[in-house]
Amino acid sequence: MPGVRGKRMPRAVRERQMMDAAVRTFGQRGYRAASMDEIAELAGVSKPLVYLYLNSKEELFTACIRREAAALVAAVRAGVDGADGEPGLTADGQLWAGLTAFFTHTAEHPDGWAVLHQQARTHGEPFAAEVAVMRDELVAFVTGLIGVAARDARQDPAFTDRDLSGLAHALVGAAESLADWANHQPGVTAKEAAGTLMNFAWTGLGGLMEGRRWSR
Question: Quick one: 151 exposed, middle or buried, by C-beta within 10 A (0-12, 13-18, 19+)?
């Protein structure tokens, strides 16, 4: 970001500039290895200005987690909401749209995903708690999608709300792990990753909605 040091610009723009630099540095270097000097240099500002705006390294990292988490959740919701306009869209079509949006976002923002999936989770509280908020929101959203499918299928009475919640947790966990894998595998597209998870999960879910359960 050359040539920006010393220029006057709106606070929101300056803050976004610093946050962009912080996400990139934290995502690539890690929370402990990243320095405020590096972040300031990348943002094209002085280190005192970074502290003036964002107070401390811990608060800066927390702000990065919150921003990247909100962006990811918004991308998934937008993917499903955008697909809602398609005529005759089924529940699995909605899930496909949500997963494709998830994998597209994590692929297009690898540093942000590294902050959420690797750095925040491995450095304890309060960072892990911030990521947990995002995960709970995604789980609740997926629970709703699976619930629609269950109602449409008129599943057997043994299929409970606890089943829905457990399946949603399993699906979100699988998506997180697969996104991490896909980001380290050259050439894997968002649609390929979404297709892998749909093949793994929805085929089984489809049978479950029809009342077929695995038994030993």
Answer: exposed
Q: Which long-range contacts (CB under 8 A, 24 or more apart) does 189-196 make?
A: 189/107, 190/100, 190/103, 190/104, 190/107, 191/100, 191/103, 193/99, 193/103, 193/107, 194/96, 194/99, 194/100, 194/102, 194/103
pLDDT digits (tens, 9 = 90+) for 17-52: 999 999 999 999 999 999 999 999 999 999 999 898
Question: Up-side HSE of residue 41: CA atoms within 13 Å toward CB?
Answer: 6
Per-residue pLDDT tens over the stretch 51-94: 988 889 999 999 999 999 999 999 999 999 887 666 667 878 88
Position 7 pLDDT exceeds 60: no
Indicate the pTM of the whole model.
0.85
